[in-house]
Amino acid sequence: MRKLTYFIAATVDGFIAGPGGDFDFLLEQLTEDFLPYLLTEWPETMPTAARAAFGIAEAPNARFDTVLMGRGTYDPGLAIGQTSPYAHLRQIVFSRSLTTSPDRAVEVVADDPLAVVRKLKQEEGLGIWLCGGADLAGQLLPEIDELVVKQYPVLAGSGIPLFRTGFAPRNLALTGTRTFEGGTVVLTYAKSPA
User: Domain limits of the chain?
Assistant: First the structure.
């Protein structure tokens, strides 16, 4: 069975974007010691244009062959003309307001995210990457098998949290940590055994 991984950048205080959805302050944290790690260990999580710019356009997908996005995650690229931000992956955008896809390589789905993910998990292939955002992550929480947080050494104070859902504490098992000189820590968690 395929695994759903929420691989996301966050501040130390748990925000994935500013209050208005801005995330440039997180991109500034891609330090010289951390960027090579992303390019070699997680190449498919780089947008297609960035892969070309970094010379890894032909790098094979190491972990994922499918990416899931909420409308808020998809829109910033769309606003600058990137209708297919991850052309090297199967792209699924969950939205009730975007009725048709601006690109034939991007599947827009209004169906229940949990049902869609459960079906995707039954298919053959690599893992499924939940790219963002908070509302979609909150809805998919029961199906998230792994949480990988790129925790950047910055405080935001407020903004969009990792998950937007009701209060329901869930224990996780820490399965890995990696610390970088620039202060970034990659934290990997799995569902805690019941």
Answer: 4-11+22-191
pLDDT at 151 over 90: yes
> What is the Cα–Cα distance from 63 to 123, expressed in whole angstroms?
15
Average pLDDT, the chain: 95
DSSP per-residue letters across 68-134: EEEHHHHHHHHHTT-S-TTTTSEEEEE-SS--S-SSTTEEEE-S-HHHHHHHHHHSSSSEEEEEE-H
Helix (H, G, I), strand (E, B) or coil at 5: strand
Q: How buried is residue 19: exposed, middle or buried, by Cβ count under 10 Å (0-12/13-18/19+)?
A: exposed
At 156-183, the pLDDT tens digits run 999 999 999 999 999 999 999 999 999 9
Residue 46: exposure state from Cβ atoms within 10 A (0-12, 13-18, ≥19): buried
Answer whether residue 94 shows pLDDT above 90: yes
Q: What is the pTM of this model?
A: 0.96
User: How far apart, in Å, are the Cα atoms of 150 and each of 46, 60, 130, 176?
Assistant: 14, 22, 14, 12
CATH fold of 4-11+22-191 reads Dihydrofolate Reductase, subunit A (3.40.430)
Residues 135 and 164: beta-carbon distance below 8 Å: yes
What pLDDT was estimated at residue 156?
A: 97
Tell me whether strands 4-11 and 146-152 are parallel, antiparallel or unpaired: parallel
Please state, in angstroms and rounded to a whole number, the distance separating the CA atoms of residues 184 and 126: 27
